[in-house]
Design brief:
The chain is an all-alpha fold and 86 residues long. The chain has helices at 3-19, 22-31, 39-59, 62-85. The chain contains 4 helices and no strands.
Length: 86
Amino acid sequence: MNSIILLIIGLIAGIGTTTSFVPQVIKVWKKRSVEDLSIYTFLIHCLGVLLWVIYGIFRRDYIITGFNIISLLLCLSILFAFYKLR
């Protein structure tokens, strides 16, 4: 496949998966509540995203690394909310 097409696919995938977490982060911090969320889901998700970051670093894939760092920060902000708001 053409490398520019792969780049576009990677960018669209990264934007989609990363921004999908934004509404949850906004909701948690706006309502100041994590009552209906599972901490285990976010712990497992953070671990998975961290592994994607490591994978991206070793592959020298800046799209995978960059978007997953952003996703990890969003997920960590929700974990911080669990600590702060409970």
